[in-house]
Amino acid sequence: MTKPLEGRLKAMAEKAKKRSEVAEQQDSVQPACDERNLVYGVQVAEDEIAFRLSLVLPSPGDDRRAMANAILRSSLFGVVEKGKRKYEKKVHKVTIQGLSLSVTGEQLDQSDLDVFLECLHRHQDQTLGTKVRFTAGSFLRAINRDVGKANYLWLNDVLARLSFYGIELGDGQRFYLGTLLNEMYRDENTREYVIMVNPKFSVFFADGLWTGLDTEERQSLKGKALALWLHGFYSTHEKPFQYKVETLKGMCGSEAGELFKFRQTLKKALSDLSVVTCWTCWIDEKTDLVHVVKTKAVRHE
Q1: What is the value of pTM for the model shown?
Q2: How far is CA 228 from CA 209, 265, 269, 286, 296, in A?
Q3: Molecular function terms in GO for this entry (predicted)?
Q4: d(C-alpha 229, C-alpha 278), whole Å
Q5: Are 224 and 269 in contact (CB under 8 A)?
Q6: Angstrom distances, CA of residue 239 to CA of 43, 174, 242, 296
């Protein structure tokens, strides 16, 4: 062995010895383990505990479905004319001020939202990232759909669409990039669907940034796309702001050509919404502002 090489090896040994001594000194001054920071017997940092707890979605009750406000305040699940879905690639969706949303995939509508709401509901009491199993029949019954071949095929298409649909969603403090369903497949042995939602999606449910949608009200508005979108949008507001008709047209994703045509459709949708929710809804003809006054509280946790 040459002397230069022998010298380098000796120096490396000295450095390793010093690192070991420093580590021993640090271990000797570690504070006692706080039992509150134990998870399954393993000590974890407080921020890690908070992160793990945040992965459990809120539980608004069996008669409601939790959804992030950021989703409901955009045209992600928009008003899409039947049979006219388009494939969108990195399309920037209209949202309320403060949000940014870019999407890639086949357009989503309110029936897709029904399915996604139920997917999230089935993750309750489990952390996001857990694989959830269900049969097509039980799922269809849960969203008040007839159980039959046509709806089996429909459900399969929707789940596939959600698993391929990519979003980039941010609010200045939080950001999520990924698909709505992180995983989806069918177990041919049990004939069950297996789904998983990306745990990072839970960041948009933190700090009370979610709303419990009334399932009975949504069911009463079934087939009325714009009224359903309005229901989700205004459910996120305790005291709704006044929005221009043109603003709502953009946020709901309507592709009605002329604004006056959308205004006519909007008047009918607001009337339907009022009947179901008992909210007072109208359009001010002078200002073209949409007014929604709630006469009963919306549950927020």
Answers
A1: 0.79
A2: 20, 13, 8, 26, 18
A3: helicase activity
A4: 16
A5: yes
A6: 44, 24, 10, 11
CB atoms within 10 A of CB 206: 16
Q: pLDDT truncated to tens, each residue of the chain (301 aa)? A: 444 444 544 554 555 455 445 444 444 433 343 433 333 334 445 444 444 445 778 888 889 999 999 999 999 999 998 888 999 999 999 999 999 999 999 999 999 999 999 999 998 878 888 999 999 999 999 999 999 999 999 999 999 999 999 999 999 999 999 999 999 999 988 989 999 999 899 899 888 899 999 999 999 999 999 999 999 999 999 999 999 999 999 999 998 889 999 999 999 999 999 999 999 999 999 999 999 999 754 444 4
Structure tokens at 196: 């998983």
Dist. CA 141–CA 145, nearest whole Å: 6
C-alpha 30/C-alpha 294 separation (Å) is 55
For residue 203, which of 181, 182, 173 has the smallest C-alpha distance? Answer: 173
DSSP, res 177 = E
Distance of CA 61 to the CA centre of its chain: 17
Residue 134 pairs with which residues in a beta bridge? Answer: 193
Using a 10 angstrom Cβ sphere, with 0-12 exposed, 13-18 middle and 19 or more buried, the burial of residue 254 is: buried
Residue 134 token pair: 């269900």
Question: Do residues 166 and 179 lie in contact, with contact meaning Cβ atoms separated by under 8 Å?
Answer: yes
